[in-house]
Amino acid sequence: MNSIANQGFMINDPNRITQFLRGELYILLDSILSISQPIKSSSDLKLVSDFIENFISVFVKYLEILPSTLRQVSRDI
User: Fold this and answer.
1) Which terminal residue of the chain, N or C, has fewer Cβ atoms less than 10 Å from its own Cβ?
2) 25 φ, ψ (degrees, to nearest 5)
3) Residue 75 has what pLDDT?
4) CA–CA gap between residue 61 and residue 45 (Å, rounded)
5) Distance of CA 32 to the CA centre of its chain
6) pTM here?
7) In the chain, where the domains are located
8) How far apart are CA 6 and CA 58, in angstroms?
């Protein structure tokens, strides 16, 4: 997630981005949010909370660059 965000979400491999966002990331988030068993150790809880925090910060970065990206698209048309 961080490498994609650090590159400003501008990667020359649309398939990689699509597979990550719609595949890997979706499955990870869905699995974490739908865990039916309680987390038993504090280290597992730390991993989950770190991942969710990282996801939120990447999503905020995406929202920050979105307006400029949309302007580029509209100019190119």
Assistant:
1) C
2) -65, -40
3) 59
4) 24
5) 14
6) 0.65
7) 2-76
8) 9
